[in-house]
Structure formats: structure tokens, C-alpha cells
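User: Earlier you gave me the apo prediction for this protein. Now I'd like the version with pyridoxal-5'-phosphate bound, so I can compare the two side by side. Same sequence as before, with the ligand SMILES added.
Assistant: Got it. Here's the input I'm using:
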Amino acid sequence: MTPASERPVITPETLRQLAFDQSIRWTSQNDDIWQLIDDDLWKLTRNPSLVLSTVPEQALVALLSRADCHRLVEGIVQAQEAKQEQPTWFASQQYATKLSRVAYFSMEYMLSEALPIYSGGLGNVAGDQLKAAGDLGVPVTAVGMLWQHGYFRQSIGPDGRQQQLYPVNDTRQMPIEPLLDASGTPLRLAINFPGVQIWLRGWQATVGPNRLLLLDTNDPANPPVARLITSELYGGDNEMRLRQELVLGIGGWRLLEAAGMQPEVLHLNDGHAAFAVLERARSYMARQAVSFEVALGATRAGNLFTTHTPVEAGFDRFPAELVSKYLERYAEYELGIPLADLLAMGRKHAQDPHELFNMAYLATRGAGAVNAVSQLHGHTSRYIFRELYPRWPVEAVPVSHVTNGIHLPTWVSPDAEAHWYELHGDEIPWRGTDRASVDDLLARVDDRWLWQIREHARNDLLRFVRSHLARSLAVHGASFSEIEVAGSRLHPEHLTLGFARRFATYKRPNLLLQDPERLARILTHPNFPVQLLVAGKAHPADRAGQALLTEWQQFAARPDIAGRVIFLEDYDMRIARHMVQGVDVWLNTPRRPWEASGTSGMKVLANGGLNLSQLDGWWAEAYADDLGWAVGDGLEHEPEHDAVDAEQLYRLLEVEVVPAFYTRDAQDIPTAWVQRMRRSMSALVERFSADRTVREYTEHHYLPLATAYRQRCADGSALAIAITRQIIHLRNHWHEMGFVDVRWDRSGEQYRVEARLQLGHVEPAHITVELLAEHADNCPAETHPLTLTHYDGAFTVFHGQLPASRPQADYTARVIPSADLGLAVPLELGLILWQR
Ligand SMILES: *Cc1c(COP(=O)(O)O)cnc(C)c1O
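And here is the structure of the complex with pyridoxal-5'-phosphate:
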């Protein structure tokens, strides 16, 4: 027992802190205290701050004076403290002192049901990475928006059509509190819109050791239209979107600084918040008394842009007049640059007055590094961004990738966790980097043990589905007898497929419905029946997506199908959690390459679920034939090809998936199936976890960016000034350069190369002259820098020697900006001169 002196003091404030911490997952293992306070409310909302908000302070004091309650809370607090005292991954890295803070900007965050400020995938990535950063001890402060209505809530009408509902988020019943300034008064900030000042309010949520700062405009001092800026996530017209992005980007950076933060790294989760790049530079200008160019040169070295869309149409773009209306004064008075220069940052061609202002281009032009979210998406993104780097080979387009991952403790079922705990005496496996120990653990359990976890999980899911369904029916006015039989045709031992996603056409949610009769035969097979759970919302403006949703309603309502396909209305984090924990197979059928990464399929892995998915996004790099199933041939096709994919999907279900599930040994265990589960768990769980993602971001991006930023700032921005000079110098004189000739001599096994150039006014120190050979059969791509040997008024000679291992004709010479000072080439300066 802990000595009394070390035991935590438990007060209502202690409870509040627990209720507000978004890093704590409440499961049947630890949620007794909320059940005790208000069991019904807890079960309905799973929102501890809401449960607390309904109880008067005195009642809480009385409750906590009860020995059993006191003990419960004490147990949770001690568990939290023990967790916090453990050395974190980040703190144990020798470079930990090189990074004091990362600012993470995202339009949405999916952390818990208690904080409904998310729509889907993007918020999931942000929320899961924020939690993982907390677990790993990476210091991140997140910035987002407090949406008064969140994303719309879905109800399905009797006609099978989606209806959109917009209940209000009550700030007093959410796990957030006003953000206070140093004197303890709530923070209020101003930002200027044309002719009117808008007030922003600051809020904060706690995520373990880190914080999420939130902004809203719902200040009574604002004109009503301004109060509605933070009303609906992804709601409103183009101008509304621009206003939201100004609030998030410019307001968000101001809020961070007002809260006393000076992060080295700014991580933009998608381009929505790209204006933060400008505001960060503006703030640096004001503090350091330097020009905008130098300020951007210094700060962009610390900016990371993560792009999330695989198609150009997915970028936010605004007409120039709209951007001018809101930012003309900001550009001229605050940044000290002509509006045209600001507009040029969002365009491919600076001078084209018809080109829209693209937030992804602004983000790229303000970044020290850019990354995509899966290997395939990296490839796709290099094509999309290649026009920003004219004449550069597409492989050199500066977009790398960090594949997304999910926060395991959020998505693994409490029951599976308990099983692992029993075996392992610790958390779930997979949280370290050591795959051997995971395989070790998997080797220690027999097929029965693993299969029982699945059987349990499927059972739990079906229980949830029945109650969700009964509630939906009741809300829609069904009769008692209808409610009573809700979900009664679901069977705990039948193969259960899950399919939940945004109903957008590119996700092809109706691929399975290409041949409804064939799907019906699969579902209603007399010996090997299959049941299917479907969920998902279509954006209120997406008519095509809504039509697909109605198609599913109609199919599910067919008398021969009734009860085997269940549509769960109002897809959200709670439904997702139950589904990914309980289904046997997760289906995903996007049109390649439109799914940048996708994360929902990753959530089933640790729960023993298997994936049957299009070779797109994360699955294109995860799939192997012994751990799941793949649709598609790994190529891109036009929509006419959908029928081929559908055929393959049906065949896989008929010939592989269903038989594998129902082929049992003497103990009724599908051994081949369980073998697949083992392979999938062993190979994929850790690799597609947010722990791995955040470690990768930290090592490959945050640390190098923080270091580069510090270097550029040091000594009165000396390096930023030098690099800005290099950029301006090269921009002004690049056109004066030309190749005179390149001479090759072979002596023995070596080539001697001499390149003669006319440099005009270009200083040789600012450029790199190099030979390049592309990748060819058996020969990898090569580059060989040449060194300056001779410089006079007429021409300049660069020289080099290389092994004569491939034909001279493979090589070509080129000039690019020198990276010696630390300039990121071609990200910061995409000039290039080819010999031919
Ligand atoms: C995981 C999750 C998503 C992301 O799903 P993808 O289809 O993989 O992009 C969306 N919404 C919810 C509620 C989720 O839990």
C-alpha cells in the first residue's frame, strides 16, 4: 500500500481533471466512477465532463467522502501518475533537447465522443497522432476550431434518404475550458476582416501531457455572420471556408503566441491552415525587425506540410478577388509586400490573373518539408506538385511520405486488451518497436485463444448493433414489436463483414451493389451465411454520395435480405469503434489512387480483423497474400473498369473468404483463418500504428526542421539573410547562365569530365554543377557533383572524375542552386539548367 503521505488528495477538481483529459480511455475496466455518478447518462453519452456538469459541487464532495468512491478515483489517479512517471520514448532520445515544441494545426480533431469537432479521416489522423505524441512524450501543442455544431448528424428518413441534423455543442458540457492569459482572464484576440474587427475566443482541451487549443468566433461582440464562422465544420460557401481558414491559420498562430508558446516546428495537417505560415513570418518580422523575405526564409525552415489529397480537385482554392478582399491590407501593411507577391505564393504561374489561389501551394511555398501520407500517395503527390518545379524530374519533386497509423489504445477492444494483459502482464503488445517479442507472444497462444477473442468481439458488436438499431427505430416511431425484433436475424457465429466510410463517389461505396442478386446469394447462402454492417455519411452538398446511400437503404430493405444487411445511422467514432473491434473482415473499395491513406482498415488489425481492400492507400504497401485479400491489379483505371473490380470482389468472397471462415477443424476452429490473423497481427499492427508514425515524424521531420530553424535564426538571422540573398541573386541572374560544352575523356577505367559554362553574374558558390544518369537496367540513378577549377571573365570550368562503368551517353550535366548554406533544393528554389 502507498504511504498516506504520498496518496493523492482527491477533490472534485481531481475528478474534473480526469474527466477533461482526452488521453484517458474509459472502458469497463475503469469507468465505475462515472457509472456511480449517473449510469444512464454515462451509457448514453460516454462523456465524463457532461456527467460531471450535471452534479452540484456539494454532491460531488459527499460522493468522494464515501470510501468506495474515494478508492476508485484514487486508483485512476495513481494509474495516471504511474504512467506519467515512466520514462517516455522522446525523453530517452539524446536529441530531446533539440526540440522544445511542435505546433500542430488541423481543421478537425477526433479525440472522443465528448468532443464532437470532427468529420472523419483527417480528424482521425490528427486525434490519433496527438494522443500518440502524448504517450511518446513528444511535446506537441495542437490548434484547431471549436465548432458550435461540429459536423452534421445523420438521420435516415423513412424514404431511405439522409437527413442532416445540427444539434448544438454546449461548451459547458464538453471537456474544454476557457484559455486564460497570464492574469487569469479568458483570452480574447482580434483579427481584421474587411472593415471590421472579429473577436476570437480561446479554449483548451488536455491530451495527456499536451494541449489542444481551440478557437471560436461565437463572441456576442461579433456581428452575427462572424459568430457563425465556427458554426459548422465543412459547412457554408467558399467565402465562409476562406474565413474559417483565416481564423484557423492567422488566429491560431496568434493564439499560440498569446498562450506563451514559441514552437520551433509548425506542422500543417493539410493545407487548410496554411495562412499560419504567413502569420508566423509576420510575427518573426516584428520581433526581429527583418523583411518578410528574411522572416519567411527563417521560419519556413521549421514548417512541415502534410498533404492529404491525391487529386488536385481536393485542394482548397479561392478566387483571387476573394483573397484580395481579405488579405490586401494584411499583405501591404503587416507583411510589407505587394498583394501580388502574396497571391503568387498560391499559384503555379505568378502572373496568371485567372488562376485560383491554392492553399496547398501556399503551404508548399511556406514549408521546409512536404510529405504525403502513404507510399503510393507520395508517388501520386509528386505528379500533382510537379508543375511547381518545371523541368525537374518527377522523382525529384520534394514530397516524401510518412504513412499514417492509428492510436492502438483508442481502437483495440477492452476485451482483447484484457486478454493480452493477462498473458503479458503489461499493455497490449506492439507498442514497442520489437517485432520479435510480438511474434514471441503470438507463438505462446494457441488458435483457440485467438479465436475466442474474435468470437467474443463479434458477440459484443452484435449486442451493440441491436441496441443501436432498437434506439434508431424507436426514435423514428417504430412499434414495440418492430423494436423487439431489431437485429434478431444477426447471428453471433456468422461471418460478419464491416463496411463504413464517407459516402463519396470515389470511395465506391456501391461497388458491392454492382450485381445485387449476386450479393444477395452470398449473404443468404443456406450453409455459409454472411452478414454485413454498413455505415457512413454523405456530405450535405454531395447529391451523388447521398444517392449511393439510398441505394444501400433500398437493398437492406429487400424482404429476402432483411436483417442480414444492417445500416447503422450516424457513423461516428463510437460506431466505428464497435465495428472495427467486432467485424471479421473490413471491406474497402476506393477507386485507386483516390484513397490517400485510409485508416479505418488499420483499426481492425489488433482486434484480429482481416482486410479485404482495394490496392490503394495504406493497403497498397501493407498487402501480402497470406495476411488479407486484395482487389484491383495495382493500376489506375477509368470508372468503366468498376465492373472488373466488382467481379473480383464477389469472387474473393465466394471462393476464398467465405470458405476460409467456415472451414473448421475438429474443435470448430478455422485454422487457416486464424493463421491469417496471426500473420496480419505480426506484420501490420505496429507498422500501421500512430506510435510508428509519430516516431517517424519526429526523427525524419521535427528534429531536422527544428535544427534548421534554429540555425537560420541564430546571430540575428544571419543564415536566413544569406540564404535569402542567394535566392534573390539566383532568381535575378539565372537566365544569364548557359552551357558552352561538356568534354569527356576516358583514361583507363575512369572518365574525366570538364564542363564549361557561361555564368553571367551568377556566383559559382551559389550553384552546383553535376552529372546525372537516370536509373537504367541494372544501373541505379547516379549524380556526380563537379568542382570548380577555373574562373575567368569568359567562362567557368567545372571538373570531375568518375568510374567508366556505363556509357557516357547515359549522363547529362545540369546546374541547380547550391544547398551548401542549407537551402532546400528544389523546395525553396526550383531553378534548373540542363545541358540538353
Ligand atoms: C477511422 C474513421 C474514419 C476514417 O476512415 P477511412 O475510410 O479509412 O478514411 C472516418 N470516420 C470515422 C468515424 C472513423 O472512425
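For your comparison, keep in mind: Residues 712 and 719 are 5 Å apart (CA to CA).
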